[in-house]
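pinning this so it doesn't scroll away 📌
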Amino acid sequence: MTMGLIVGNRSSFTDPLARSGWEEDAARVAGGGHGCGALTAQESKYGAVGTQEESWRCAELYEAEEKQEGQESDPEHSDFTAT
């Protein structure tokens, strides 16, 4: 399973904090045996999402991952539940 990872940064956090957050979270996802769908440092500053254009890149990335894995999102029938 591939999990989506979004590290938001709209100038709220310092660049080193955004970078370390991305690295730590991506390592946790991979350490759990999952793939990690996220922007890379080449696609945005430290892989963090800080602009609307970068958020659209995330959406395109996740859509491509779903197609590759043969899945489709349906917000009305999500696997997530509120706790």
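📌 and the second one:
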Amino acid sequence: MEKLRAENRTRRMKLEAAREAAKSEEARVDILKAEIKRLNQKTKILSSRMAEARSFLCRDAAGLVGLRLKRRKSGKVEYLIGGVLIPNLLTDLGGMQIALNERRKKKEEEVKGL
């Protein structure tokens, strides 16, 4: 009987030690979760500040090089830097290529005519 009681005591001590270890592990996990949450918030704040700074710098650079917006009567929007048209690669690329080809043909005809 004494042997069984001693065995039970050792089992209880091991169980208590395991519970303590689990509690300390949970505490460590909670600390890590809080730290991750804090770092995520810090990252969001820093990324929004960087985006604001980039936006400001881009606007400032555009002003320095003379970026202008021009609206045509047709509703088309064009951007100019120092009076030079900036092609809109998404919409105007095909049209720009056609215009360049026409200019080349005209130049070739002028050269042949001379």
